[in-house]
Write a structure and sequence with these properties.
Blueprint: E1 4-17, H1 26-39, E2 46-59, E3 63-67, H2 74-81, E4 89-94, E5 98-101, H3 114-124, H4 129-143, H5 158-170, E6 176-179, H6 188-203, E7 207-211, H7 215-221, E8 224-229, E9 232-239
Parallel strand pairs: 3-7, 3-8, 5-6, 6-7
Antiparallel strand pairs: 1-2, 1-4, 8-9
Helix pairs in contact: 3-4, 3-5, 4-5
Length: 252
């Protein structure tokens, strides 16, 4: 049996939701302070648990799909795993290097060109510059942005952002690839190339964790499926379809 590379134990994330009125002027703010001081009452913020006591393990080479309704905690879990936000309680133990694609444009500097962002984003993902230079042609070819490679990415469309970001993530030899719903932005041809790429990466031992509302995509890629409902893991981690299918490796 393959080793556990992501171990999530009793993970919770709490947010405070403030319902107090925001004064729109200095005078109104001072009056609000005076009334609060006179009454001796402080505004009470509502607690919102985006995640509550989530525990799961992911093994090397598995492809886990996180599913659930909007607001169920899927993206919060990926952000904690990617160390973008801290948990309120619980812990995550990760073995290996993570490459994350969570939001369109994350990790890109808008004033830098596509070429410059390849090296910036690759460095952020822990890939040495020498290796990036050796793979630049493959990254650009897969992304299809060669014509705009030396254009500042602030002029890119959302689809171009996604194509370049995924291409970088797929070529930096990450042990774990974390993908939010961003691949839905790309066109159908690019989505199909990404799916073949993900299948190839998984067959070579890369662990994949992705969020999707596309049931066909989940059926095709996921070796395991976990459902989140109002921040809680609903029914544990279940076997997916992909683990029972045999495919020839697809090389990039």
């Amino acid at each position: 049996m393959s080793r556990v590379v992501v171990d999530i134990a009793n993970l919770s994330k709490r947010y405070s939701l403030s319902h107090q009125h925001r004064p729109d002027s200095l005078k109104a703010w001072l009056r609000s302070l005076a009334r609060r001081a006179a009454s001796g009452k402080q505004p009470v913020d509502e607690e919102f648990w985006a995640l509550r006591d989530v525990s799961l393990q992911i093994r090397q080479g598995e492809c886990l799909a996180l599913v659930g309704k909007n607001g169920s905690g899927k993206s919060t879990l990926l952000k904690i795993l990617s160390r973008i936000i801290p948990p309120t309680s619980g812990h995550i133990k990760v073995s290996g290097r993570i490459a994350s694609m969570l939001e369109v444009g994350t990790g890109f500097h808008p004033e830098l060109t596509g070429r410059e962002n390849v090296f910036l984003n690759g460095a952020m993902l822990g890939c040495p510059e020498r290796k990036l230079r050796g793979r630049l042609d493959a990254i650009v070819d897969f992304s299809g942005v060669e014509r705009f490679l030396d254009t500042p990415v602030k002029h890119y469309s959302s689809g171009m952002y996604v194509r370049l970001a995924y291409s970088i993530a797929a070529h930096v030899d990450a042990d774990i690839l974390v993908i939010d719903e961003v691949l839905a932005v790309g066109d159908s041809d690019f989505q199909e190339r990404c799916i073949l790429s993900i299948e190839s990466l998984r067959q070579r031992g890369t662990t994949i964790l992705f969020v999707s509302h596309n049931t066909d995509l989940v059926r095709r890629l996921a070796t395991h499926v976990a459902t989140l409902t109002q921040g809680r893991l609903d029914g544990g981690v279940l076997p997916g379809v992909a683990r029972h299918e045999s495919r020839e490796p697809t090389h990039q």
